Amino acid sequence: MVFSSNPLSLSVPDPTFETWLRDSGYLDVIDDHQSAAAATDPASTITESTTTIPITGILWGYLVSLFSHLWILLSLFTLNPFSKLTTNDFSGETPSWTKGFFGDCGSYSFPAAVSQARLRVHENVKRYARNYASLFILFFACSLYQLPLALVGLISSLALWDLFRFFSDKWELDGFPATQQVLIRIAQCATAVILVWLNVQMALCCALGVSYIVMILHAAFRKLTPVKQPSRGRRK
User: Fold this and answer.
1) Chain centroid, CA 84 distance in Å
2) Which positions, given as ranges, span the membrane (predicted)?
3) Cα-Cα-Cα-Cα dihedral sign, residues 43, 9, 15, 122
4) Is residue 127 within 8 Å of 31, Cβ to Cβ?
5) pLDDT tens across 100-114, in order?
6) Which helix (H) or strand (E) holds 220?
7) How confident is the model over 161-208, as pLDDT tens digits?
8) What are the residues facing 222 on neighbouring strands?
9) Which of 201, 188, 187 is nearest to 154 (CA)?
10) Long-range contact pairs involving 53-57 (C-beta distance under 8 Å, separation at least 24)
11) Beta-carbon neighbour count of residue 19 at 10 Å?
C-alpha cells in the first residue's frame, strides 16, 4: 500500500499520523518519508549551485555532511538491537535470502538520521532474526575451521558430557543425588579448562564480533520493505 506523506494533513497532525503508521505496521512508509525529507533538505543540496555559494560554504557543507554521517555510524554501536526482539521472531519462516535478506542495490541507503537508523535496526533485526542466527553459525564454523584446536576442544567437551550421561545411566546416579552433583561440578570444571586451554572462547568471540558488525550494518542500511498486513474481516 502506498501513502502520500500525510493524506490527512488537514485534519490529522503529522505526529498523530506517524503514530498510527507505527501502530499499524507501516514502518516502511515512515522510512521512505524520512529518506525523502532528507533528500529535499536544503543543507544536502548546498553543492548544486556552485556559482552563488562561496567555496568556503561548499567545504563547510561537505564537512557538516561528513560529520553527520560519521555521527550516524557511531550511533549504531550505541543502540541495543535486541531491545524489541522476542522468541516469536525465531519461530516463523526464514525470509528469502535473495529477495528478502539481500535484495538488490536499490534496497540499501544510508540512514538520513539517527532516528531512522534506530527504526531500521530494531525492525530489521526482528524481521531477519533467523537469517542473522544462520550467519552466526556460519561464522562460528569458519572460526573453528581457522582454529583447529578450538574445534578439537569443542568436540572434546561434547564427548565428555556424552560419557557423563552414559555412565550416569549405567551406574544409576539418579539414586545418589549428592554424588551426581559432585560429578557434575567436576565435569563443568573439566569442560571450562578444555574450552579455555584450546581457545574455544577465541573462536566464539570472533564469530560474535563479526556477526554483530554484519548484523548492525545490514540492519541500518537495509531499507524497510512492506509487510503483509493481516486481513481484517468485515463486521456484520
Assistant:
1) 11
2) 59-79, 135-161, 200-221
3) negative
4) no
5) 999 998 899 999 899
6) helix 200-221
7) 999 999 888 888 888 888 889 999 999 999 999 999 999 999 999 999
8) 108
9) 201
10) none
11) 12
